Amino acid sequence: MWAITRVISRRVHGTSFITIPKLSGFSIVSPKQVEVEYADGTKFNFSSEFLRIHSPAADGKVRSIGGEKVISGRRYVGIMSAEPVGNYGVRTGIYPWDYFYELGSNKFGLMRNYIKTLQKHNLSREPPPSRKR
């Protein structure tokens, strides 16, 4: 387990600043599931799809449709490895620890908005069919 020695204040849900507790655990439960736990007992479980579509790293497959950035076809992505980056975060696309907390605090709304955006643009969470050569 990794411990962060500092406490970070961050705006969550766009309403007010909260104090983000110290990280107390991070684990890849399976290639499809990551668990992040904080010192106050808050625990978040994330699917690899959720983390991929909310990755702070650039994705060559991001489509801009009407000014909206849309990532589709990521239902079956997996996480093979993750490595800590000092007290900052984890490298699977580099997610700062406080970003995990922000994602977890907004998880259901973010996923709902993602699905609505896909539907709006007639896209799917499923990967596109393989091209036959």
From TrEMBL:
The regions listed as transmembrane in this protein's record are none
Supply one GO molecular-function term.
metal ion binding
Q: Does the keyword Cell cycle apply?
A: no
Q: Which residues form the Gamma-butyrobetaine hydroxylase-like N-terminal domain?
A: 32-101
InterPro entries reported for this sequence: GBBH-like_N, GBBH-like_N_sf
Claim: Iron is one of the keywords in the record: yes
**Pfam families membership:** GBBH-like_N (PF06155)
Q: Which UniProt keywords apply?
A: Iron, Metal-binding
Cited PANTHER family: OS02G0197800 PROTEIN
Its protein name is Myb domain protein
| Species of origin | Arabidopsis thaliana (Mouse-ear cress)
Q: What is the lineage of its organism?
A: Eukaryota, Viridiplantae, Streptophyta, Embryophyta, Tracheophyta
